Amino acid sequence: MRGTDEAVANQAEPECVAVSPEMTALLGCLLDAQAPMPPAPVAFVVEYGAGDAPPTLHVDAEPDLEVFQDSADSDYRQVFLVSREAVLRCGGAGLVEARVGDFFLASELRLITSALRHPPTDPETRTPYRLAKCIELFCEIVRLFRAGQLVPLVNDSSLSQSDMSRIVVARQIIDERWNEKLTLNDIARACGVNRAKLTRGFREMFDCTVFEAMARKRLQQAGQLLLTTDLPVSSIGYESGYLNNASFTRAFGRHFGVSPTDYRAWGQAA
């Protein structure tokens, strides 16, 4: 109970944050007449649903702003209004052209929105912290969309809402525990579905197998380690689940198109 009490105590009060002239964030609050409004805003709406509904991201290039003046139906809602020009300038043309999109909230985005809900309590730190997290969230949304890593909500899925939620948890497990020796049984048991349903549902929702998702995540993390550490390539390969340097180099080359050594050299040159 103590951990829960501390989390509740650190829960941020609803707040409108003027991030910049091109971005306003409504963190659990409603839009009012005093809120600064970016020109021609695109809305990025994070919904934390009730019950077992997974958190989602809704993108609307032509939002009805009156919707944000009404009480949210979900337990918690974060709205980020970003000027269309800023979205286009930052590489989000595809999001604007799609006009409306609904996605599962990726683990990378969930970490940022959780940080916005539970910011530092120190008033001198809290404001710049939330400003930085709002900008980080927007940049990550654009990056993940461009990389094809935002997973659309499947309206005609054969899966129930409960099963979809559990398979989203399976994806979280992969994203957060990528360096562990996870088996299909481990993941199925942790998210509460059987192997067959996990295998079928994961492919339906994420257009890849569980093992393909795990391999991609490990290689992405290996890429980060190559750029941000001085660890030997062989050590990074081992940390990423490869038993020898040759198999790691082959897998890395298939994924990134260059060897780990060349990838590190390219990053250092940039």
Structure description:
The chain has 270 residues and is an alpha+beta fold. It has three domains: 2-146, no CATH class; 161-207; 212-269, Orthogonal Bundle (Arc Repressor Mutant, subunit A). Helix content is 51%, strand content 14%. The protein is built from twelve helices and six strands. The protein has helices at residues 2-9, 84-89, 93-98, 107-117, 123-146, 161-176, 184-191, 195-206, 210-228, 233-239, 245-256, 260-269, and strands at residues 15-20, 23-27, 41-48, 56-60, 76-83, 100-104. The protein has a six-stranded antiparallel β-sheet. Helix 4 runs antiparallel to helix 5 and helix 6 packs across helix 7.
Write the layout of secondary structure elements.
Blueprint: H1 2-9, E1 15-20, E2 23-27, E3 41-48, E4 56-60, E5 76-83, H2 84-89, H3 93-98, E6 100-104, H4 107-117, H5 123-146, H6 161-176, H7 184-191, H8 195-206, H9 210-228, H10 233-239, H11 245-256, H12 260-269
